[in-house]
Amino acid sequence: MIFWAPFLRFVQQTSAIVAFFTNALLIWLIVNKSPKAMFSYKHIMVFTSVFEIFYAMIDLLIGPELITKSTYWIAETDSTKTWLPLSIVYPLLLAWGGSFGIALASFIVHFMFRNKKLVSGKSFMLYIWLSIPIISGTMYAVLTHIFLQENEFMDTLISTEIESLRYVHKNEMLYYGFSLYATLPNVEIQEINWKHVNGISFIGTCITFSFFAMTFFAVKGYSAIKKFNDSNTNSSSLSKALQSQLFNSLVIQTAIPVILIHVPSTMILICSFMNTTEEVYGHVFTVAVSLFPVIDPLPSMIIIQPYRRAIKTCFRPGPSTQNSSIMRVNPKSPNITSRVVTF
Length: 343
Fold this sequence. Notes:
The chain contains 10 helices and 3 strands, in the order H-H-E-E-H-H-H-E-H-H-H-H-H. It is mainly alpha-helical. Helix 1 (4-33) runs antiparallel to helix 2, helix 1 (4-33) packs parallel to helix 8 and helix 3 (86-114) crosses helix 4 (123-148).
């Protein structure tokens, strides 16, 4: 336990600083090196990077940690991990939990934009698309507060069962959490904590629906790209390649939070129901979450050719001699699925 506390804080702080750099670099690439025909899709990509900077900032400012044991877990921070007033820390802690909802909804919007039948070229529609992840994250945070907020039973459980928090005063700690039982572990007859179980079930249903929606629009987007590549014989190979690059990078970006956040959190929840949760699970989850905003921008920078070329140019001596190419586009086509400019 003595090892984990400083290690987790070091990982969170280091990851946050690196995440600021990687996402800021990606934003610069999107703004300055994106093909012009991407139009509003650039704004969606920038929104995702700004969100990941915000996510990393929460890690840096309040140092949230997931603590797991037997049939319960808590997402916690306290006065030893942050210099901010605790009155504003709790909303940030809820935002940390609700950010997974923002990530899921954000990638759903990405896949929707890859489907030309669902994309409007009107600028006001951009605000509607961008509001979807914000509404989703707010909903997750509100549900977390309603069902998993602090209560006297959880206070007692923390003070008696979690050694690392035993001497932290209640007024210096903030958390939300889940417990399978509404009675302490040493009680012979255990009573199910139905409020927590129902809350987790409802949140889990929302997550499942989000995954189905994301999968549906991902398949639609893939079909749209395949149809575009097959039917547009006059389009250049560079144009078709860029469409595939955008889609492939998006798929990998989507897989990263699923692997780092969704899979571990699901396993922790299952173990909580089976009374097999170990403390190390929470430590691993905390590290994985802090790595998410660091790793997620990398697929776009590596896979999308204009961005990769711009990064290589920074390390190449002398001016670039690589030829530029511009593809003709159909001016009547309203979205990036059917018109692309490559440089």
